[in-house]
Every structure is written in structure tokens, then in C-alpha cells.
């Protein structure tokens, strides 16, 4: 049943381990850089509002959201959501995160193509994600009688994998915009810039590993499908 799946299975496990390491490293970096005060004295909220103003964006609100590392930009209601610590903190970490999320707002305002593509995929994926795990499970359980359920599950899972890879240029571009702006605006010193860049790099690696993990999992299901088909 799992013919030729073993090597890919180990890749999935390896990706999970690497993901855990990177998440741990990101939390470690976040805690470290959050302790280092920003010489400009600006809070994450002030930095976000300033970046939006500098780009002529007046219809986006900066709000605080509960949790840690929960920062995100919501294009639906045009809000930059900063975690409570980032919203209030005056650190290199807060500056990096606030500017990064505003980078997404700038992408939205300038109709950045990859963000538009990702946003267009969201409605379909929100529905797919509810049923895909059950379809994949049914496909594996029914593989001796029919390959159709697993084939459908693989097709749906391929959409989530595509989404994870489309996310990569969106995240890297937002970080590039953020670092360029905080540097040009004098928000950070050269030393603080290095810390902000390092924090954003580790954050970006979580998306890279997530994309590779999704691809490895997709290949795992494909190998099961192909192995079963070859034995028919």
C-alpha cells in the first residue's frame, strides 16, 4: 500500500523537525530583539502609522490583536493587526514586524500581482481546507477499491501547496519593502537594521519550511497513488 513512499515519508518527518527548530529560533530571536530598545523611541504602532502615511495610505487602520507572533495584514477590512507586544514595544523587533505588515498594505495599495494572486486563491482554499483531510483519509482507506477519492484529495492538496509557494514572494517582498523604508526613514540605526533583518529572515524561513513540508506531503500522497496504480 505504501510502495515507494518511505523515502518521502522521511522527508516529511525531517521537514517537521526543521520547522520546529526554526519556530524555536524565531521565538528566541523575537525575545532577544524585543529586549533591545529602539534609539528612535518609536513604538510599533507609531512606526506602522508613519510608514502608511509615507506611502499615502489613509484607509488602513493599525490595531492591536491578542497573542504573540499573531501579526498580520488583513486586506478584507484593511487593517494592520499588530500583536500586543509589537503594538506597544519600542524595539528593533517591533520595528521590523510593524514595517513588514505595512509592507503588505503597500503591496495591496499598489496592486502587487503576487498578493492579488494569493488573495484570489483564499476563498477557494477556505472551502477546500474543511474537507481535504477527510477526502485524503477516505482515499487512503479506500485505495484498494478505488483511486478516485485519493486522486481528488491530491488535486485539492496541490492547491494548498501552490498557495504556500505563492506566499513566499509575497512575504519576501514585504520584508524588502520594510527594511528599505526603516533604513531610509532613519527609524533604525545600522546595528538595529541588522537585528531587524535577522528577525525578518527567520520569520521568512517559517514560510519556506511550510512550503517545502507541504510539497513533501503532497509527494508522499502521490507516491501512494502511483504505487497502488502500478500494482493494478
Automatic annotation (TrEMBL):
It comes from the Bacteria. Pfam families: Zn_peptidase_2. Keywords: Membrane, Transmembrane, Transmembrane helix. The chain crosses the membrane at residues 6-26, 134-159, 199-222. The keyword Transmembrane applies. The keyword Transmembrane applies. PANTHER family: MEMBRANE PROTEASE YUGP-RELATED (PTHR36434). This is Zinc metallopeptidase. It comes from Hymenobacter nitidus.
Amino acid at each position: 500500500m505504501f510502495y515507494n513512499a518511505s523515502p518521502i515519508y522521511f522527508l516529511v518527518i525531517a521537514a517537521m523537525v526543521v520547522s520546529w527548530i526554526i519556530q524555536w529560533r524565531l521565538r528566541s530571536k523575537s525575545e532577544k530583539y524585543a529586549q533591545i530598545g529602539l534609539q528612535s523611541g518609536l513604538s510599533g504602532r507609531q512606526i506602522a502609522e508613519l510608514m502608511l502615511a509615507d506611502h499615502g495610505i489613509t484607509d488602513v487602520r493599525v490595531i492591536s490583536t491578542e497573542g504573540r507572533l499573531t501579526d498580520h495584514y488583513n486586506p478584507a477590512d484593511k487593517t494592520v493587526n499588530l500583536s500586543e507586544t509589537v503594538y506597544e514595544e519600542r524595539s528593533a523587533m517591533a520595528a521590523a514586524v510593524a514595517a513588514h505588515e505595512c509592507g503588505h498594505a503597500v503591496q495591496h495599495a499598489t496592486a502587487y500581482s503576487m498578493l492579488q494572486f494569493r488573495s484570489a486563491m483564499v476563498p477557494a482554499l477556505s472551502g477546500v481546507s474543511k474537507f481535504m483531510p477527510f477526502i485524503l483519509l477516505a482515499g487512503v482507506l479506500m485505495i484498494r477499491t478505488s483511486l478516485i477519492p485519493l486522486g481528488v484529495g491530491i488535486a485539492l492538496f496541490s492547491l494548498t501547496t501552490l498557495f504556500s509557494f505563492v506566499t513566499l514572494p509575497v512575504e519576501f517582498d514585504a520584508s524588502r519593502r520594510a527594511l528599505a523604508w526603516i533604513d531610509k526613514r532613519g527609524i533604525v540605526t545600522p546595528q538595529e537594521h541588522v537585528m531587524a533583518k535577522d528577525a525578518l529572515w527567520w520569520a521568512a524561513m517559517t514560510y519556506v519550511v511550510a512550503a517545502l513540508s507541504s510539497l513533501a506531503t503532497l509527494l508522499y500522497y502521490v507516491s501512494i497513488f502511483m504505487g497502488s496504480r502500478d500494482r493494478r
